From TrEMBL:
Signal peptide range: none
Keyword Cytoplasm annotated: yes
Pathway(s) annotated for this protein in UniProt: Cofactor biosynthesis; molybdopterin biosynthesis
Role, per record: Catalytic subunit of the molybdopterin synthase complex, a complex that catalyzes the conversion of precursor Z into molybdopterin. Acts by mediating the incorporation of 2 sulfur atoms from thiocarboxylated MOCS2A into precursor Z to generate a dithiolene group.
Major subcellular location class: cytoplasm
Protein name (database record): Molybdopterin synthase catalytic subunit
Amino acid sequence: MDYVSISKQEISVEEVAAQASSPDCGAISLFIGTTRNHVQAKKVVYLVYEAYEPMAVKEMKKICDEMRQKWPIKHVIMVHRVGAVPIREASVVIAVSSEHRQEAQEAVMWAIDNLKARVPIWKKEYYEDGEKVWKENRECPWRNSSP
């Protein structure tokens, strides 16, 4: 089963992990991306995420399909939050279950790298000094291309 979602609500890590659970799997690997309180020397107050939701969901489903071609996995759950995300709260949770841990661990690492590089979700950082900055993901392919 694959489940992908863009959510305006706080993400329950426990619910995501439970959705990935299966009696025939011995592993569930999780990636939980949270808002940290700083970027370099600047103090972050919160983040705001925006998404082009129809395209984001479509691309997340493609990532699930590609994962299934690479690894023998059972369930893939991907939830990304939009709107304001306070410090320490999850902005993205990915859970992958498989019979053995190696497949789930490799798949979840690959999934977050591809989600950040391919899915149309944008992040704005709000700093303690009042400054706001839209941020690019380092994984975005256009960051490393020459003009």
